[in-house]
Design a protein that fits this description.
Layout: E1 14-18, E2 25-29, E3 34-37, E4 43-48, E5 55-59
The structure holds zinc ion.
Zinc ion binds next to loops.
Length: 60
């Protein structure tokens, strides 16, 4: 079989977020974050900022 475009496993996809509190920029995989589905039916990922330990949210 010939691969035309290499797939990316969802759990290894990298997401980026910036902490609104301290400005820390971070990169994390989906399994390092907590998956949250909001009441607005949005899919969000929650991680703890490594610098100030506050919650950082990013869209999926
Ligand atoms: Zn922070």
């Amino acid at each position: 079989m010939r691969v035309i475009r290499q797939g990316v496993l969802p759990e290894t996809t990298l997401y980026r977020a910036t902490c609104k509190h301290c400005g820390c920029e971070m990169e994390f995989t989906r399994k390092e974050a907590e998956y949250v589905s909001s009441v607005m039916n949005e899919s969000l990922l929650k991680v703890a900022c490594p610098t100030c330990h506050r919650e950082v949210w990013t869209d999926l």
